């Protein structure tokens, strides 16, 4: 609805609808900036390698033949239909193929395929999800991007990739540009499917070189392959320079980018080179974890195993706890220890927010933070702490005393998978349906364990836990640890609930002002808090990229699944051996 | 109700520009919402706009709810004695004036959720009444500020 600009009349104020999806209600995922900074080109949406090839080719073809850019949508549709046919009645379709369900039902209800009739596709049939999700990453990878005049330009590597893709089928260009196609003809297009099996050896090879950074990036979207560095890698002579996380991330920039899919963190050439090397190191680090832990696809979540390896340098395999050594990447992996600290810290704040929202849901007439804290059974909290062996005496009344107990229990060592308590076990406990008082105890313990680990961090690691936050209700770990660590137990709860309440109000206000999205989960009127009725699903693993890395490495021929376990392929083992 | 009977206040505030003074009255007040949404939106096109908010004394934010900008980036004045319930937003400049008179508080719900009424006006007589209203208010609460002097000057100019 448009507002009326002129004219005087009595009017109703217009109700602004709530957003259907509320992403990051505390503006805290900015603490994951390391994965955006060090993994350019890989997002939470880029799971399949073939999209990178398809879209490079599609944009190149559209440019070369001077076609309407909308043709890219039709090309993506036809390849998605071919993928649906390739996996029709089969449950082996890999994750990450966009619109597969709609393509399957379109195939089932249409004998002749007219692309213009397939309208249940992508973002309102205007842009395919593949195109939407992979264009930013293709630009980050220096493969292809639009220039200032809107023309898509290609790097040397981008042109090679388009050539390779164009050789997949006979007369690819003619086939993929058809407006109408029979099912028989479509069968001939299944080699274009997005699954790993269909990726050509030379396609895998070039993408390996790109993603592992055996390339020469330059400004102005120039990218050529760097065979000299690759030869060094082959000769096992490749070393890793010291890599730090010197980013200038601020909350406002992050919130502006929150709905975009590729945050542009790396902007200049030295950063581009650094982040390319960092991406290589991350991919090798993940391969090392797969090699050592061979995670089961039906066992402990992959994300948890990766968290354990990076945070504790340990993992659980076949019921025993084992160590992992990142060798040449040891120093680099320290940055990721701080990153995992941030993930648990995100969990901590989100659990606190969940306690607040749950209390509001039970109070249709509104409530206050003081009333919520007064409803907590502090005696039961203390009894639970004693049961856990953390506070042995009745006179324990503040967080500092519990802190001393925990420090004593850990005797100056870092937590590990075998210590009690540890962050993993406490955080997983918090996900279980336990009593509110048990949750409150776990919240205190998780807070103190994280604070303890944070205090052990080096300067470099501390940078991973930093960004330019708003001084009001800052959630920077250093600020929160310093302020909440000295409180009495009821005050600790009062402060943490007030912090997440105010933080949510601030972030929602900022998002509203910056992006026009109305994403409040609660409101405060006359000092009383009310639940806003919008469902918010509390998540736990916030590191969606790890799965996509494993999928991309699978498409590159470096990882496979054997006997329900992720393992390195022969080539994967060869590559890893060049570093470890 | 037809859409022409509605007014989106945030959208309105995005579009108004060139004002030098702003006065707001409200019963309840949310500093986080006001500073990060309303003030921020207004200052994009009115960067040097001096702003005064008059709030019911009972709803004057407690220190715990104040931000580092509260009462610093703008003047925030509690109004006591009786319940202070008017909602008038007045924007003034050398060349043009604008007012919104309604039931909306300076809160999230007041702006985006509740059923509130508003009357938008540039009518000379009504704007003059609004200026009178604010001047009377300031004299009652004995506040002195160069902004109020400007308001008095504005009143004198309008009489000429």
Helices and strands, with pairings:
The complex is a heterodimer of chains A (580) and B (160).
Chain A lengths: L9 E4 L19 H5 L11 H16 L6 H16 L13 H10 L2 E3 L14 H12 L3 E3 L5 E3 L1 H11 L5 H5 L3 E3 H5 L13 H11 L3 E4 L3 E4 L1 H8 L16 H7 L11 H25 L8 H10 L2 E4 L2 E4 L6 H32 L7 H7 L2 H10 L11 H12 L12 H9 L4 H19 L4 H6 L12 H8 L4 H27 L6 E4 L2 E4 L13 H11 L3 E4 L2 E4 L1 H8 L3
Chain B lengths: L5 E2 L1 H7 L5 E6 L4 H15 L4 E7 L18 E5 L7 E6 L4 E6 L5 H5 L4 E5 L2 H17 L5 H14 L1
Parallel strand pairs in B: 2-3, 3-4
Antiparallel strand pairs in B: 2-5, 5-6, 6-7
Helix pairs in contact in B: 1-2, 4-5
Compact summary:
By secondary structure, chain A is mostly helical.
Search tags:
heterodimer, A: 580 residues, mainly alpha, two-stranded antiparallel ribbon, two-stranded antiparallel sheet, 24 helices, 13 strands, globular, disordered N terminus, B: 160 residues, alpha/beta, Endonuclease, Chain A, six-stranded mixed sheet, 7 strands, 36% helix
Q: Span from first to last CA of chain B?
A: 42 Å
Q: Biggest interface: chains and residue counts?
A: A-B, 33 and 46 residues
Number of strands of chain A: 13
Widest sheet of chain B: strand order? Answer: 4-3-2-5-6-7
Seen as an oligomer or otherwise, the chain set is heterodimer
**Which segments of chain B are poorly predicted (pLDDT under 50) over 5 or more consecutive residues?**
none
SSE topology string of chain B: EHEHEEEEHEHH
Provide the β-strand percentage band of chain B. Answer: 15-25%
């Amino acid at each position: 609805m448009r507002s009326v600009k002129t004219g005087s009349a009595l009017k109703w104020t217009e109700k602004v609808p709530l957003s259907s999806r509320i992403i990051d209600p505390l503006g805290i995922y900015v603490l994951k900036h390391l994965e955006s900074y060090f993994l350019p080109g890989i997002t939470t949406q880029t799971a399949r390698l073939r999209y990178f090839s398809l879209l490079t080719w599609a944009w190149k073809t559209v440019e070369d033949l001077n076609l309407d850019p909308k043709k890219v949508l039709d090309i993506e549709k036809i390849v998605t239909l071919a993928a649906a046919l390739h996996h029709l009645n089969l449950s082996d379709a890999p994750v990450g193929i966009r619109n597969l369900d709609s393509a399957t039902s379109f195939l089932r209800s249409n004998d002749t395929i007219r692309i213009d009739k397939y309208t249940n596709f992508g973002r309102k049939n205007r842009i395919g999800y593949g195109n939407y999700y992979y264009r930013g990453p293709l630009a980050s990878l220096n493969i292809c991007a639009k220039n200032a005049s809107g023309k898509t330009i290609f790097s040397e590597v981008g042109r090679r990739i388009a050539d390779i893709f164009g050789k997949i089928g006979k007369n690819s260009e003619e086939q993929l540009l058809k407006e109408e196609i029979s099912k028989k003809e479509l069968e001939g297009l299944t080699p274009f499917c997005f699954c790993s099996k269909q990726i050509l050896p030379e396609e895998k090879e070039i993408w390996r070189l790109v993603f592992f950074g055996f390339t020469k990036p330059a400004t102005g979207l120039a990218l050529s392959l760097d065979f000299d560095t690759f030869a060094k890698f082959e000769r096992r002579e490749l070393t890793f320079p010291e890599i730090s996380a010197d980013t200038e991330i601020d909350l406002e920039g992050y919130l502006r980018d929150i709905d975009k899919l590729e945050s542009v963190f790396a902007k200049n050439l030295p950063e581009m080179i650094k982040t390319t090397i960092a991406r290589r190191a991350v991919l090798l680090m993940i391969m090392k974890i797969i090699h050592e832990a061979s995670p089961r696809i039906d066992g402990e979540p992959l994300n948890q195993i990766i968290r354990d390896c990076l945070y504790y340098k340990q993992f659980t395999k076949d019921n025993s706890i084992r160590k992992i050594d990142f060798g040449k990447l040891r120093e680099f992996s320290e940055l990721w220890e701080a990153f995992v600290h941030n993930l648990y810290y995100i969990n901590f704040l989100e659990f606190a927010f969940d306690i607040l929202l749950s209390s509001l849901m039970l109070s249709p007439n509104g409530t206050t933070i003081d009333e919520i804290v007064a409803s907590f059974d502090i005696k039961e909290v203390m009894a639970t702490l004693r049961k856990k062996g953390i506070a042995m005496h009745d006179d324990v009344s503040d967080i500092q005393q519990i802190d001393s107990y925990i420090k004593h229990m850990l005797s100056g060592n870092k937590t590990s998978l075998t210590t009690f308590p540890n962050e993993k076990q406490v955080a997983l406990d918090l996900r279980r349906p336990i009593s509110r008082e048990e949750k409150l105890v776990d919240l205190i313990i998780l807070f103190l364990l994280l604070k303890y680990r944070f205090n052990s961090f080096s300067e470099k690691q501390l940078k991973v836990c930093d960004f330019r936050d708003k001084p009001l209700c800052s959630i920077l770990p250093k600020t929160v640890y310093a302020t909440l660590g000295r409180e009495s137990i009821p005050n600790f709860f009062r402060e943490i609930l007030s912090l997440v309440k105010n933080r949510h109000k601030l972030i929602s206000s900022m998002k509203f002002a910056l992006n026009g999205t109305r994403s409040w989960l609660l409101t405060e009127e006359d000092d009383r808090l009310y639940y806003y009725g919008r469902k918010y699903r509390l998540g736990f693993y916030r590191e969606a990229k790890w799965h996509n890395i494993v999928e991309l490495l699978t498409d590159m021929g470096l990882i496979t699944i054997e006997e329900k376990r992720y393992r390195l392929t022969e080539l994967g083992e060869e590559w890893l051996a060049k570093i470890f | 109700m037809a859409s022409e009977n509605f007014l989106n206040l945030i959208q309105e505030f995005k579009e108004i520009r060139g004002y030098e003074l702003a006065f707001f009255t409200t019963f309840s007040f949310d500093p986080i919402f006001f500073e990060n949404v309303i003030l921020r939106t207004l200052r994009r096109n009115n960067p040097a706009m001096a702003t005064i908010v008059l709030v019911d004394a009972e709803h004057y934010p407690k220190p715990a709810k104040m931000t580092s900008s509260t009462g610093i980036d703008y003047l925030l004045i509690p109004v006591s004695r009786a319940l202070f319930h008017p909602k008038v937003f007045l924007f003034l400049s050398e060349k043009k004036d604008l007012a919104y008179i309604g039931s909306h508080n300076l809160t999230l719900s007041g702006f985006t959720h509740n059923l509130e009424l508003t009357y938008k006006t540039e009518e000379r007589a009504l704007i003059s009444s609004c200026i009178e209203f604010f001047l009377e208010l300031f004299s009652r609460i004995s506040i002195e500020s160069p902004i109020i002097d400007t308001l008095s000057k504005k009143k004198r100019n309008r009489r000429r």
